[in-house]
Specification:
binds zinc ion; mainly alpha
Length: about 350
C-alpha cells in the first residue's frame, strides 16, 4: 500500500505535467476494471516504459484512482490552470460531510448526504443522460423526463424549469440568512452586512473552472474556491461560511435533487416503469444475457469459470459501490486518502 501511494501520485503528476504535450490521454473505460487500459498519443497506443509502468498498476485501488481521474479531469486538465483556485481541503471536508457530522460518526442520514455529495461532485448522479448511456431498461432517451425539452445532464438538474421556486440562488440566499441569524450575534452588524453582500457578489461572478456558469455552480458541485475563504474577516466568518455551504448542499439535495427524483418516479410509474424493471438492461440481447446470468447463478453454481467471468464484468460497478459505500471501514481510506491522493498530485 505504501509503495503504491508513493508511486501513483508521481505517475499522475507526470500525466498532468505533460498534459500539453500528450494530446490524447485516453482511458479505455470499459476495459479499465476488467483488463487494462491503453494510453494513447495521437491515437497511437503508447508503448515502452510508460505503458509498462501502467501495466504494473493492477490492483483495485489504482483502478479507482484512474476512473476517478477521468471523472474529475475537468477540474485539472480542462480548466486552464483555474484549478489552483480550488481549496481542496475545504472542498473535501464539505463533500465528505464533515462539517456538521464528525469524522467518525456514521448514520443513515450521513450516508445519504455523503453519497449524494460524492456522486454530485463526480457528476454521476443518475440523470437520464447517464441512465441512457448505461442502457437502463425503459430509458428511451436522454431527454429530461420532467420538462421534455433539454437533455437531462448534471447541469440541467439545477436549471430545469420544473424546479419551480427552488433555484440555486434562492437556496443559497436562504442558507446565508438562516445561518447568519443564529450564528453572528457577536459580530458587528455592518461587517455582517458586508459579508453577506460579498457572498452574493461572488456567487454571481463567472466561474473560471466551469466557464459557462457562475460561481454558485461550483458550490453546487461542492467545490470551494479560495475566493470565498478570502472574504472572511476572521475565524468566525470562516466557520459560518462552512456552515452556509453545508446547509446549501443539504437544501439542493432536499429541494432540487430529491424533488426531481420524486417527480421522475411518479412519471415512470405512470409509464409502468418500476424500480426492479430499471435494474434490467434496455437492449434485447443484453436481456437474454441477463437471464443467462441469473440462471447460471441459481442453477449452475458448479460452473465456477462462468461466474468468475460475470464477477469480472461486474467489477467496475463493484468498485464504484466500494467508493460510495459508506459506513464501512474503508470510508476514510476512500473518501480522504484516495480522492485527496488523486487531487493532491
Ligand atoms: Zn428538465
Amino acid at each position: 500500500m505504501k509503495s503504491v501511494s508513493v508511486k501513483l501520485p508521481a505517475l499522475k503528476q507526470e500525466l498532468i505535467r505533460c498534459k500539453d504535450s500528450i494530446k490524447e490521454v485516453v482511458l479505455k473505460y470499459s476495459n479499465i476494471a476488467v483488463d487494462e487500459y491503453a494510453l494513447r498519443w495521437n491515437y497511437n497506443a503508447i508503448e515502452g516504459a510508460y505503458r509498462k509502468c501502467f501495466k504494473e498498476i493492477s490492483n483495485n485501488i489504482n483502478r479507482i484512482d484512474l476512473i476517478l481521474m477521468d471523472y474529475v479531469k475537468d477540474c485539472f486538465v480542462e480548466c486552464n490552470g483555474a484549478n489552483v483556485m480550488i481549496d481542496w481541503k475545504e472542498t473535501f471536508k464539505l463533500i465528505n460531510n464533515e462539517i456538521s457530522t464528525g469524522r467518525n460518526v456514521t448514520n443513515r442520514l450521513d450516508a445519504s448526504r455523503r453519497s449524494f455529495r460524492v456522486k454530485n461532485f463526480l457528476k454521476i448522479l443518475p440523470t437520464y443522460e447517464i441512465l441512457y448511456e448505461r442502457k437502463v431498461w425503459g430509458i428511451e432517451s436522454t431527454k429530461c423526463p420532467r420538462c421534455i425539452i433539454e437533455v437531462e445532464t448534471w447541469e440541467h438538474i439545477w436549471s430545469c424549469e420544473n424546479n419551480g421556486v427552488f433555484t440555486e440562488y434562492k437556496l443559497f440566499s436562504d442558507s446565508i440568512e438562516e445561518i447568519c441569524v443564529h450564528a453572528m450575534t457577536d459580530e458587528d452588524s455592518n461587517e455582517i452586512k458586508k459579508f453577506k453582500e460579498n457572498l452574493v457578489d461572488i456567487s454571481t461572478g463567472r466561474s473560471m473552472i466551469m466557464p459557462l456558469h457562475n460561481m454558485i455552480r461550483e458550490i453546487t458541485r461542492g467545490i470551494i474556491n479560495e475566493k470565498w475563504m478570502n472574504v472572511c474577516k476572521n475565524k468566525n466568518f470562516k466557520k459560518i461560511l462552512r456552515d452556509i455551504f453545508d446547509l446549501y448542499l443539504m437544501k439542493i439535495q432536499e429541494h432540487i435533487w430529491k424533488e426531481r427524483c420524486n417527480e421522475v418516479t411518479e412519471i415512470e410509474k405512470q409509464k409502468g416503469l418500476f424500480k426492479d424493471l430499471k435494474r434490467k438492461k434496455r437492449d434485447a440481447e443484453d436481456d437474454s444475457e441477463d437471464k443467462e446470468t441469473d440462471n447460471t447463478k441459481l442453477e449452475n453454481s458448479k460452473n465456477r469459470k462462468k461466474i468468475k467471468k460475470i464477477i469480472k464484468i461486474d467489477l467496475e460497478n463493484k468498485i464504484k459501490n466500494d467508493v460510495f459505500s459508506v459506513g464501512s471501514s474503508n470510508r476514510h481510506r476512500i473518501g480522504n486518502n484516495i480522492i485527496s491522493n488523486l487531487i493532491n498530485t
